[in-house]
Amino acid sequence: MRKSLLAVLALVAFILSSCVGPTPLVPPSIDPNAPVQDGETNVDVDGVLLEWVATGEDLTYDLYIRRVTKSVGAWQLVASNLTEPRYVLTDLEPNSKYEWKVVSRDPRGRTVESPIFSFETAPNLYIVQAVEYNSGGPVEGVSVCFFDESELLIQKTTNAEGLVKFATDRETLKIVMKKYGRGVSIVEGLRPTGKEAKTVPIRLATNHPDPNDPINSDLALNVEILDLSNNPIDISQPIGADFKVKVTFTTQQLPRYIYSKLGSVPGAGLITSPRWLASNVYETTFTMGIAGFKGEVPLYVVAYDANDNRYEKIIYLTIQPNAYAEDNLYRPEKDLLMAITRRRGVEFYSVPGFENISPEVAPEGSNLLVLVRWKLWSADTGKDRPDAYNVYRSFDGENYTLIATVPYSTTFNYAYDFSSELSPGKRVWYAVSAVKDDFETELIDFGSVVPLDSFNVQLISPADKETNVSRRPIFKFKPTKQLTSPEGTVTYNFNVAIYPWVQSEIYPITAFDQEGRLVNFSTTSANIVQVPFAEHKWYMFWVSGGSVVPLYEYPDMLEAGQTYDWTVGYAYAIVEDDDSVAISVACDWIYSSLRYGVDPIIIMEQDVFNQFTVGSGL
């Protein structure tokens, strides 16, 4: 009887438990402490953390999002099978409304959907890219603080491309950038950048690597706008005449350079002239011409101190030039469009002249620039001389952006584009207009160019430290990379240089032809190039008047038992089509500051010299 009773009780318990059923699912909701609430406004576009709460065990989540424009878009599944009730959104559009929802799922496969939540992103987008130097590569891991005057809005860290994005309702910001081993870099007066990043150099520190060291603090840059009689100008009103810029730089270290320029960021004379420069002073005054400018124009002032801390200040001025009565203005004519890729980067920085640029090589860096050059105006054309030229760039051949205004000069009939958006294999278009007073001509098409990738040279034979080498060796080397271009066949060019300086000879040796010209060795492939010593005449040489010239003919074989160094003196790849040239330079160096001149910028030393010792035979 007792066993029967227990059996009945067990059956009743089973039936009752079956009637209770599983715990019901509750639609996810937003916790009051979540960073983004329903209906939130002024939300950032990058690193947006969505959080929700849900009831149940071992739940997983699918997150859906849609952008609301004039019509509601379709739901997009952005993440599925999430095990945590949170997700970080990136790369949202500014000034946009988004809706989102969450679907919870339990292990039984049951689902429940949340209500539809929404938020609106902030209207003003700031994209900042940290770079090693002008035309240099990106810098990862830089702390970027965004300030509205003294209020810290947010701190972010640059990614592998050196980028951070921030959206806000503030219309002008100050940014402070820091990374150990590099100088502090500050930009004040930055306006929303839109889709194109504001590139900011953050250079290697020269003395004090810790950016939080007190000696790197208290940087300030004061700028006064004066008329030519040194009276203050009300910059809320249009400026119709040349003016002065008085700059005072505050730093606890010695000052190094102060630059100023209208229209674009100033730097080294080679790539940003014309611009103003003062060295080793805390205070200076520049006279700024307004020819060629009209409307709202940014005035840039940039200062460096001895630790390579950098301070950039941007002031927007309204320029009101005279009226140009008739259209008899000269139209620009293209002289050259050239993309320049340099294996090693020069930190374009300070000095005003071409020959005086001191290369500060960043081992991991490189340069990529585009030279846009036009023909000089001549009175013989019967057309009025321009006050300036405007240079425009496009990445689609249709939508052009102004990148430089170059006042008329018989010296500076060119502009360099060193935007971080330039990339090997990415086609870019350019156009130029002429400006006089308040008149600007239509854009004149200068064509397009596709920059080449970088490459290096591998020395094969004679190998480094090789002995018993033939007195008439065969030099073998090869490009490290096969370069291609949609603009034509890429041709590599080299020469071979021998250095007998172990024997205290004073000149290097290379091959010349019967007309006294350097012998150039070329190929269109990345295969091994062979240069037999016996097939050429070799001369000791030097540089005279900017040209490489032969001095003394060398014997028809190397000296037995002696030690030499050899390398490829210059190496470059080039491709041309009907409207442009693209060049990629691997090296161009002879000795000290001397070079062959194939690099359009400055010297670039080789990575490797092979030393070998000649045997006693032939």
Automatic annotation (TrEMBL):
Originating organism: Pseudothermotoga hypogea
UniProt keyword Translocase, yes or no: no
Record's keyword terms, sorted: Signal
The name this protein goes by in its record: Fibronectin type III domain-containing protein
Signal peptide stretch: 1-20
All residue ranges annotated as the Fibronectin type-III domain in the record: 32-124
Superkingdom as given in the UniProt entry: Bacteria
